[in-house]
Specification:
- It contains three helices and ten strands.
- The chain has helices at residues 18-28, 80-92, 128-134; strands at 10-15, 32-36, 40-45, 48-54, 62-63, 69-70, 74-76, 96-97, 109-113, 119-123.
- Strands 1-4-3-2 form a four-stranded mixed sheet, covered by helices on one side.
- By secondary structure, the protein is α+β, with helices and mostly antiparallel strands.
Length: 135
């Protein structure tokens, strides 16, 4: 039997209007809506369940020590070409995306923002453990 933390089961994202946000994720990110009511929705994408929770918070971002607004989740894609393709696809779907960045480590990144202002990062490198187990 495994002990300790195994995986992240669900990520909770604050949203203003559950139905509007769920439809945005479905249309823009190709998420599958598995549950929805007036207070929350469960959307599935990137091998993960996300709860969109009606909230008074504006978004899940935070301010770092230098005063910059930061994301709290990074998604991984399989290589630079996949990153470039997704960046272009998101732009074509009118998703707010940042420039592709070289942050001084392996791979490249870009940030995108959902309809509620939640920022997410995308990295061009799959984790070695994920590759080993699933590819």
């Amino acid at each position: 039997m495994l002990t300790g933390l195994i995986r992240v089961g669900t990520i909770y994202i604050p949203v203003k209007e559950v139905e509007v946000s769920a439809k945005w994720y479905e249309e823009k990110i190709d998420a599958v809506i598995s549950y929805i009511d007036t207070d929350k929705a469960i959307v599935n994408f990137a091998n993960q369940s996300f709860f969109l929770v009606k909230s008074k918070n504006t978004n899940a971002n935070f301010i770092d020590f230098a005063g910059n607004e930061q994301f709290s989740v990074t998604f991984e894609v399989d290589g630079l070409q996949a990153l470039l393709s997704l960046h272009s696809e998101f732009k074509n779907k009118n998703i707010q995306v940042g420039d592709i960045e070289d942050r001084g480590h392996v791979g490249k990144n870009f940030v995108f923002t959902d309809i509620d202002g939640n920022k997410f990062d995308v990295w061009s490198e799959l984790s070695p453990q994920f590759k080993e187990k699933f590819l």
